Structure to design on (471 residues):
């Protein structure tokens, strides 16, 4: 990777909404053909607001919510009241259908474009996208087409769109098996592709895109590292070089062996690395400054620290408490702003709020629902948090700064600039089982990217650095 001097998307590249090139012409993600949208992804008027919804109707609402005029992340739409109208299995199916369609949106659009003279209203275009993904994934043509035709009448309230959906999806069904594999991995939108290309080069970006298209397996962190091999056998999982367990497809997580007794928790292999840089923490006081939902809090507690887990969000802190209760680990939980904390700690973990662009394998909605506008403010917040965190660190204390971002301004640059602002602050060479020396950066941090471990199933993009305050 070249020296990380990526232009900051909002400071130097204000590029506006993502460019979704390559699909049918006309209304794309943004302009739903004049249909008013609700903020929770509603797809057409609710004539019976309590009537059950099918998985496909749910998926359509989710897609409309992500790609509508006021784009929402799927995680934000999960709170939408209408989701209560789906049975739990249908809700899971709807999430999967929407997620996988978003992951392959460019491929869906490329298959559709030759069959559309002009783009239909957004809800109908989204129906065609969902149907195309289902057909490409091997769905039975008759059932998929008929169900989406029915949905078309309901969603748009315009029966004349049924014919279009029927005709287009039948054509897609006839060619998907041959044509789909020829399509390139979907490209990142320009607001992200351009700064990442400058930092990593075009070849690496194509590798990121291939990894994003492949999706992510289920990774677990074991509470007691000594039992990792035992749980790998119990779960039929791969034990990764860094100590995490990996399942190709976990299915229902709460039904897996070891879940109920709290032997492990779900955490991407890259996300498990920052806390591991701190090693054994027996007897140390630790502050987890942005703790929720608690993956790293549990690691710090399992490593022997007396942990204070802080987060701004009380709702998200409830997840930390649930996770601690299930795993039998303990930490003091505190709601509040990281910038207003007082006290002194031996170690601090700062997993700062960021663009989350390292997690696109798991969240393919992110490039579609975001446009980079928020990144400038996040960069400012990260450096303010890092400066304040250093005031809470005991002399000689260690701090891990990390973000799940691919953008160097949220990682490498933050540490380089902090070293300039704080004479006496130093970077400790990172050590942890399985840490590949090739991941170590110029300033001494660790950079992971989604294309690493291609034969094992990739990993999230993360940046982390272990810092030491002067005595
Ligand atoms: C990347 S997530 C943390 C993930 C967590 N460390 C884990 O491993 O499970 C960032 C967190 O920062 C929290 N946050 C955002 N602004 C904050 C602030 N000013 N003070 C404290 N927490 C904040 C968010 O609520 C969010 O839970």
């Amino acid at each position: 990777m070249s020296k990380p001097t990526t232009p900051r998307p909002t400071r130097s590249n204000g590029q506006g909404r993502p460019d979704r090139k390559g699909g049918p012409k006309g209304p794309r993600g943004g302009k739903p053909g004049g249909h008013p949208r609700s903020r929770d992804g509603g797809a057409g008027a609710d004539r019976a607001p309590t009537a059950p919804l099918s998985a496909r109707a749910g998926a359509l609402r989710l897609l409309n919510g992500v790609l509508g005029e006021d784009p929402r992340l799927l995680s934000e739409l999960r709170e939408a009241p209408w989701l209560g109208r789906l049975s739990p299995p249908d809700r899971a199916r709807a999430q999967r259908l929407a997620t996988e369609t978003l992951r392959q949106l460019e491929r869906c659009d490329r298959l559709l474009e030759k069959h559309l003279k002009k783009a239909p209203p957004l809800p109908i275009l989204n129906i065609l996208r969902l149907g195309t993904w289902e057909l490409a994934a091997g769905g039975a043509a008759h059932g998929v087409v008929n169900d989406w035709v029915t949905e078309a009448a309901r969603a748009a309230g315009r029966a004349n769109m049924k014919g279009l959906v029927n005709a287009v999806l039948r054509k897609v069904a006839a060619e998907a098996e041959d044509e789909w594999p020829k399509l390139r991995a979907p490209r990142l939108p320009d607001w992200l592709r351009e700064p990442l290309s400058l930092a990593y080069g075009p070849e690496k970006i194509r590798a990121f895109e291939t990894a994003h298209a492949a999706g992510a397996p289920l990774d677990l962190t074991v509470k007691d590292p000594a039992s990792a091999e035992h749980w790998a056998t119990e779960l039929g999982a791969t034990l990764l070089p860094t100590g995490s367990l990996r399942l190709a497809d976990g299915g229902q997580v709460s039904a897996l062996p070891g879940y109920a007794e709290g032997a492990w928790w779900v955490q991407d292999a890259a996300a498990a690395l920052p806390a591991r840089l701190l090693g054994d923490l027996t007897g140390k006081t630790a502050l987890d400054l942005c703790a929720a939902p608690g993956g790293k809090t549990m690691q710090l507690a399992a490593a022997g620290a007396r942990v204070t887990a802080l987060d701004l969000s009380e709702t998200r802190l409830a997840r930390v408490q649930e996770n601690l209760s299930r795993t039998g680990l303990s930490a003091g939980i505190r709601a509040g702003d990281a910038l207003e904390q007082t006290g002194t700690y031996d170690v601090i973990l700062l997993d700062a709020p960021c663009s989350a662009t390292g997690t696109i394998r798991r969240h393919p909605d992110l490039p579609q629902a975001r446009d980079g506008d928020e990144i400038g403010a996040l960069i400012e917040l990260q450096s303010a948090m890092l400066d304040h965190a250093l005031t809470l660190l005991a002399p000689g204390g260690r701090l891990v700064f990390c973000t799940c971002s691919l953008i160097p301004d949220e990682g490498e640059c933050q540490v380089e600039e902090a070293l300039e602002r704080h004479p006496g602050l130093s970077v400790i060479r990172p050590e942890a089982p399985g840490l590949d020396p090739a991941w170590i950066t110029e300033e001494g941090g660790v950079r992971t990217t989604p294309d690493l471990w291609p034969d094992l199933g990739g990993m999230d993009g993360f940046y982390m650095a272990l810092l030491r305050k002067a005595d």
About this structure: The chain is about 40% helix and 10% strand. The chain has two domains: 22-182, 268-468. The two ends are 33 Å apart (CA to CA).
